[in-house]
Every structure is written in C-alpha cells, then in structure tokens.
Amino acid sequence: MIKRMEAFFEFGRLGTNWRTEILAGVTTFLTMAYIVLVNPAILSDAGVPLPAATAATCLSAAFGSILMGVIARYPIALAPGMGLNAYFTYTVCVKMHVPWQTALGAVFLSGVIFLALTGAGIRQMILRAIPHELYAAVASGIGLFIAFIGFQHAGLVVKDPNTLVSLGDVKLPATALALGGLVLMVALEVRKVKGAILIGVLAVTAAAWAMGQVHWTHAAFSLGELGKTAFQLNIRGALGKGLLEIIFVFFFVDLFDNLGTLVAVTKRAGLIDSSNTIPRLNRILFADATATVFGSLTGTSTVTSYVESTAGVAAGGRSGVTAIVTGGLFLVAVVAAPFIGIVPGAATAPALILVGSLMLATVTEIRWHDPLVAVPAFLTLVLIPLTYSIANGLGFGIIAWAVLHLVTGRLRRQDWLLYVLAALFLARFVYLSGS
Fold this sequence. Notes:
The protein is mostly helical. It has 20 helices and 4 strands.
C-alpha cells in the first residue's frame, strides 16, 4: 500500500520521501495558520458569526488543500484569500450595504464561472498567453511580497506617516527573536539540515514563550456553530442588479492571484517542464475553483492558492502529500482553533523572509538588456509588493508588455489573447480608480 502511494505521488521521480513531505506540510501550515484567526476577524465585521467563520475557514482550507494534493498532486495549499476577504467585507458588505449571505452568493457564482472556464480550456489559454519572462518576474515579485510580509511580522518594517514605511525598533524582543530565527534557519539550510525552516519556527516559538512574548487567550469554540453560515448563501440576490460587477471582481482578482501563485510555487519547486508548461494544469485549476465553491457553501470568502506554499517547497516538499498534510492540519485546527495563536508572528516571519530571498533566483531568467522585456518585468516585480497584490503587479506587467510591443511595431497576431488581457486589466484599473 505504501509503495503504491509513493508511486502515485511520484516520490522516485521527484526525489522526495515521507519524512520530507510531512515536514514540508507542517511548515506550510505554520506559515499560513494565521488565516485561522485573521479571516474570521475580517468576516465578522461583515456580520458573519465569528465561530462559524472560524469553522468555515478551517474546513475550506482543509478541503482545498487536500483536493489539490490528491487530484493535482502539487504541494500547493489553499485557504480563504487575504485581500479578497477585505473586499468582501469592507467594500461589498460595509460600503455597498450588501448582506453577507448575498456576498457569499457572489463568491459561489465566481467559483462556478471558474469551473466553466476551466472546463472550456480558457484559463489554460490565459496561462499560456503570458510571456515566460513575466512568469519569472511574478515568482521574484512574490518573493519580495512574502519577504515584505515577513519584515512586517518581525517588526523590522513599520508604518511611517511621512515615508509610508520605515525601520522598526530592532531592540524590541519580537524583532530580535525574528532576526535570530532567520540566522538559525539560514545556518541550518547551509548545513543541509532537513526541516530547517520548521526547526527555526519551533525554536523561536519556544524562545518567545520563555520570554513572555506570546499573548494568547483561550476561547470557547464549537463545530456546531458552522450551521450559522453553512448553506446560508443567497445566489438569487447575487444575480440582482448592480452585483454582477462584484462577481467579476471576485473572479478577476482570484484568477490572476491564483495564476501568479501557481507559477511561483511550481517554478520554486522545479515542476515546470522544459517547454515552460505545467503538467496536470487542468487538475490544479479544477481544484482551486472547486475549493471556492465549497468555501462559499460553508460560509467564507474566496478560497485561493497561498504563496506561503513556497515555504513548504523550500523545506523540500515536491508532491501532493505536502498539501494533504497541510489540509489535515487545518482539519485539526477546526477543533483546535483557539490554540492556533500560540505560534507568534516573530516565529513565522523569518521563514517568510528566507523563502522570499530564495525566490529571487528567477530574476536571472529575465533579459534585462532588452527594454521591451525589462520594463514590463520590472513593473511586475516591484508592484506586487508595493501594491500588496499579485494581480496588480501582473496586470501592469501585461499592459506594459502589450503597449510597448504595439508602439514599437512588434505586434504579433498569435499574441491576440495577451492584448485582450491587457485591455481587461486596463478596464479593471480604471474601474477601481473610479470606485
């Protein structure tokens, strides 16, 4: 039985084993476990019952990650997406006064559209239309993005009213712990220690507890609370006048966030083949679309692939077992949600910084001497972290690529879909600037 499973997940071809995959799955979970606390807190501002939102968050993350691991066999974990949950709450529900049940209906419909486009092969066409150099820029841009998040969690980068960001206080215990954890993880990586990132996270967590830097309060929780959100979505209301634009935003942002994350994780894991195509792409896209539909049925906003999956890949994860382990831990988190807060941000921050730095290796694939390539790639690379959005960075990169090739007479008929994407992105940016 074990041998058959190893053959199914292609352990031999990928050069991996059970120990490595399990450690990678635990690592991915620890770096994205914050979503169990953050997503329900955001959704509760829309009126979604907090305990139910917590259960929905855990179940949808578990379902999506396990489905990805079993069907697509990739080390990509899924959970309700940051950014889209804020749009769900603060734009749709609070600003537009849309009931959360109706907003869930819009999420459901966007997932159904995903499934339809996947079945028709359109999402696959979109992925193939994006130039290889922009793939490399997306992967590096996401590296900067997650490293920036790590710097914030570490307290090394803080808000500044004059310059937007500034250097934090390195004397703070949490910042010192994060920096010490980074040194430890790098040292272990250099020595080729298996599970270096996980060891670092656990070591910093232990040190933080010993220093009294973890402030955690137990909260009561019951799985039965899920009934307050499960199947409460209002699909008919979501089809009403004025809500089609909401469905489009959920769909559009999730589409390109997913594609960007997919490219970053598969490139980091070395899973893109020699022709720059991703094997079993249909299954990957089916898994994330189905997870969004499932999430809306349980009571949470759009479920998407997580860039933190690169932490598991950096820890050696190469197969779907990594995602299955992560999903299994999210199942455990359904009943252990009150205890998730025991891992402080200072412990996961160095993992994000380390993984982000390693992802910058893809910049060498970009032809920096060619302005037609360098400028779009640079915009993609820089605007992902600066706008806090994978979709925004990729959008500016595609628009720049299309415009520059058009004005220099380098337009090719076979690139028609890229120009369609550029027009759609431009329309989105104009719409968002006016809203």
